[in-house]
Amino acid sequence: MPRLSRTFAFAVPLSALLAGCATPPPAPPPPPTQALPAPPPPTTTRGEFTIAALPLDVWNAIGDVVVRTPDAGYDSRAQMLGLYAVHYRGEQFLLLAHALPLSESIRVLTTSVTARTPDGAPIDSDASAGLLAVLQQELPAEIERVHARQAAADAAEKAAATSHAAKKAKKKTRRGR
Questions:
Q1: How far apart are CA 95 and CA 62, in angstroms?
Q2: pLDDT at 176 over 60
Q3: Which of helix, strand or coil describes residue 41?
Q4: Which of 6, 22, 148, 168 matches a 20 to 30 Å C-alpha distance to 133?
């Protein structure tokens, strides 16, 4: 038995040593990951709003608000299209102001204000939503300032025309003497 025990004493550690050196079978490769499909482009613009005012008044007020807003400016504009090409916080996009048709739900002249990509598609970005929020907050007061400015310009024009007509009439009376 001593010989068997000595053989057994060598065999057990040797088998444990060999078992520890054996390489485990390779793990199966992970299944290929499928790329998630790109989300569809937005169909509406976050932050778009309506305001009860004439489109021309809204368009004029948008320009005034944009030039006073930090990190914002306009690159071009088109009054007939109600359009401003603007940049805000490093992003370029379009601002549109257009009239909504009168209907059962819209009884006063109302203007929609929205933002679009330079290609004209709806945009969903923090910059466009941020500028639309600024406009929504400041446009009502700015439209009132635009009205006041226009009324003052009309009054000055009328006063100048009246003054011119009075001077002309005064000249006629002097000549007629």
A1: 9
A2: no
A3: coil
A4: 148
User: What is the C-alpha to C-alpha distance for residues 126 and 143, in angstroms, rounded to an integer?
Assistant: 25
Contact 45, 122 (CB under 8 A): yes
Lookup: tokens for 51 = 């305001």
Q: How crowded is residue 73: how many other Cβ atoms within 10 Å of its Cβ? A: 11
Query: First vs last Cα of the chain: how many Å apart?
Result: 159
Cα of 24 vs its chain's centroid, Å: 57
What integer pLDDT is reported at residue 28 of this predicted model?
A: 82
**Closest to 115 measured CA to CA, from 142, 146, 136:** 136
Q: Phi/psi at 123 (nearest 5 deg)?
A: -125, 145
CA–CA distance, 77 with 94 (Å, rounded to integer) = 9
Reported as a single tens digit per residue, the pLDDT across 122-153 is 998 999 999 999 999 999 999 999 889 889 99
- Gap between the Cα atoms of 5 and 13, Å rounded: 13
